[in-house]
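Saturday, quiet lab. Running sequence design on the structure tokens for the scaffold JK sent over.
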């Protein structure tokens, strides 16, 4: 790693597939679809077999829309996605009781993000503890999808990890996604204003995590334990690790 030998003053972490991940099988998607389907069934709109295909198509269209917005660095929230799903349902079942249950559908969508039990990436707790013991400042830099940042923080608190972090920078609060420099600058300012060359970012995405950090002058560690990004998506990183057991040696801290 470029600059190896000097311990970093601060280390920032991506959230999804770096700190936490969903259980296999489209976990959050399935929970949201099931909850919204039940609202429609209870309202007499139709059976689960009738309403679920409409919800599935609406969800997938909303996710594609979010990905387009993410790549264009245009903010799109989970609330926006839920509203677009409701619009699709109202269009499909015109004249039914759908309009009267929009608020319940929105609550069903949001509630599944709050009630879900996300998994910690294997080894992350030990790595954070080891870095904290060395008085290295720790932060989060996260592109928020359909689950807002307060909910993401509560998941970390539930797992006992939030106490390790000195600052966090979420796209729904900062107003930009990675790789925009502003979200990285926001993180470094909150961690003490260290020069980028003294800081390291850990994440799984080449285009956002690696390219964004390196453009600012930070070192970038790409972790592949949950997600292996495609080579055509951007630079590989100053170093690539397959598990958190490799992080401290990669930082020159073993």
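Result came back. Writing it out in full:
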């Amino acid at each position: 790693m470029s600059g190896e030998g000097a311990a970093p003053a601060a280390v920032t972490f991506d959230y999804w597939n770096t700190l936490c991940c969903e259980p296999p099988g489209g976990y959050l998607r399935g929970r949201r679809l099931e909850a919204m389907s039940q609202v429609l069934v209870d309202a007499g709109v139709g059976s689960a077999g009738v309403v679920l295909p409409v919800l599935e198509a609406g969800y997938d269209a909303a996710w594609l829309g979010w990905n387009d917005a993410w790549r264009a660095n245009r903010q799109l929230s989970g609330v926006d996605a839920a509203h677009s799903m409701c619009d699709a349902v109202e269009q499909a079942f015109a004249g039914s009781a759908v309009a009267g249950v929009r608020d319940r559908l929105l609550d069903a969508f949001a509630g599944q993000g709050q009630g879900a039990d996300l998994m910690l990436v294997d080894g992350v707790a030990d790595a954070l503890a080891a870095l904290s013991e060395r008085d290295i400042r720790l932060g989060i830099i996260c592109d928020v999808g359909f689950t807002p940042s307060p909910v993401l923080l509560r998941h970390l608190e539930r797992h006992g990890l939030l106490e390790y972090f000195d600052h966090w920078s979420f796209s729904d609060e900062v107003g930009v996604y990675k790789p925009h420099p502003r979200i990285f600058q926001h993180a470094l300012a909150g961690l003490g204003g260290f020069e980028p060359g003294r800081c390291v970012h850990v994440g799984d995405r080449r285009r956002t995590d690696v390219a964004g950090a390196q453009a600012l002058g930070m070192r970038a560690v790409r972790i592949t334990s949950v997600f292996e990004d495609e080579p055509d998506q951007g630079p590989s990183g100053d170093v690539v690790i397959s598990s958190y057991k490799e992080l401290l040696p990669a930082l020159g801290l073993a």
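Notes for JK: The chain has ten helices and eight strands. The mean pLDDT is 94. Ask whether to fix the surface positions before the next round.
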